[in-house]
């Protein structure tokens, strides 16, 4: 995009030098050259930000690898990156899908339930969750469009189904910063508690995944707690 704009400005500069007369013949090419310089600086800033984000993510992943080295060494880092710093909602959905399958869940797309992203069932139990997956640059507010979709499933769900929201929040913050921030707004927490809808962050899901890989927890116990959770934020503990 930036290269095309610079090329267009170069063409205008040449055209101005050849076609215009007097001072205009000088000012148009100079203006175009100045604009090309500014566009070039903007392109460099964009590139620098992209590289800084790559370095930041690499640093975060290295910290996590050192902290959880026994459990993380054989994992797909792309899944972790997509879970905690997703570039888009579809990428996040795929990462959540992969992690839930790894935890032993039977995972399927919403099917007839178009209001949810995934349906998960816990084998050898009657536990079933309709899962809404969302991302937010800050904490999740009550007006997030995926909250309404979760409510729609809550209204349409069968008797033994549970509505679950998995949210990747504070996308541009480090893990250490996220641990000090609120994942959802207070009014949303009260609203979800009133509707008996449970929300777990992708970071909490990641922690649960790590503990399972390290043999620290029984996922069936965790899903039973999640299933019986009264609503609001759920933390694996």
Q: How are the SSEs placed, and which strands pair?
A:
Elements: H1 2-19, H2 24-67, H3 69-72, H4 77-84, H5 89-102, E1 106-109, E2 118-121, E3 128-135, H6 145-156, E4 161-168, H7 175-178, H8 186-195, E5 198-201, H9 202-213, H10 219-227, E6 232-233
Parallel strand pairs: 3-4, 4-5, 5-6
Antiparallel strand pairs: 1-2, 2-3
Helix pairs in contact: 1-2, 4-5
At the first level of CATH, the class of the largest domain is: Alpha Beta
Terminal-residue CA separation:
47 Å
The name CATH uses for the topology of the largest domain is Restriction Endonuclease
Amount of helix: 55-70%
Strand content: 5-15%
CATH architecture of the largest domain: 3-Layer(aba) Sandwich
Q: What is the spatial order of strands in the main beta sheet?
A: 1-2-3-4-5-6
Task: Tell me the number of structural domains.
Answer: 2
Please mark out the parts with pLDDT under 50 across 5 or more consecutive residues, or reply none: none
Tally of alpha and pi helices = 10
- Helix-and-strand structural type: alpha/beta
Q: What series of H and E elements makes up the topology?
A: HHHHHEEEHEHHEHHE
> What composes the largest sheet?
6 strands, mixed
- The total count of strands amounts to 6
What would the average pLDDT be, to the nearest integer? 81
Radius of gyration: 25 Å
Q: Outline, from the CA principal axes?
A: elongated
What does this protein structure show overall?
It is a single chain. This protein is an alpha/beta fold and about 240 residues long. It has 2 domains: about 1-65; about 75-235, Restriction Endonuclease. The protein contains 10 helices and 6 strands. Strands 1-2-3-4-5-6 form a 6-stranded mixed sheet, sandwiched between helices. Helix 6 links the parallel strand 3 (about 130-135) and strand 4 (about 160-170). Helix 1 (about 1-20) runs antiparallel to helix 2 and helix 4 packs across helix 5. The radius of gyration is 25 Å and the shape is elongated. It starts with a helix and ends with a strand. The relative contact order is 0.10.
């Amino acid at each position: 995009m930036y290269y095309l704009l610079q090329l267009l400005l170069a063409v205008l500069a040449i055209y101005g030098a050849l076609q215009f007369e007097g001072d205009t013949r000088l000012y148009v090419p100079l203006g175009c050259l100045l604009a090309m310089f500014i566009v070039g600086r903007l392109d460099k800033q964009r590139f620098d930000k992209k590289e800084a984000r790559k370095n930041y993510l690499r640093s975060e992943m290295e910290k996590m690898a050192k902290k959880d080295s026994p459990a993380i060494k054989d994992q797909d880092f792309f899944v972790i990156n997509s879970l905690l710093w997703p570039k888009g909602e579809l990428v996040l959905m795929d990462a959540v899908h992969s992690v839930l399958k790894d935890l032993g869940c039977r995972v399927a797309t919403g099917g007839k339930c178009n209001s949810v992203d995934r349906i998960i069932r816990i084998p050898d139990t009657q536990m079933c969750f309709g899962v809404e997956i969302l991302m937010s640059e800050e904490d999740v507010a009550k007006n997030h469009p995926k909250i309404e979709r979760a409510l729609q499933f809550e209204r349409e769900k069968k008797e033994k189904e549970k509505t679950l929201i998995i949210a990747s929040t504070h996308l541009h913050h480090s893990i250490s910063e996220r641990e000090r921030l609120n994942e959802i707004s207070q009014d949303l927490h009260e609203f979800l508690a009133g509707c008996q809808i449970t929300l777990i962050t992708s970071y909490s899901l990641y922690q649960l995944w790590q503990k399972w890989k390290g043999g620290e927890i029984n996922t069936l116990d965790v899903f039973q707690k999640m299933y019986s959770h009264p609503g609001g934020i759920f933390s694996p503990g």
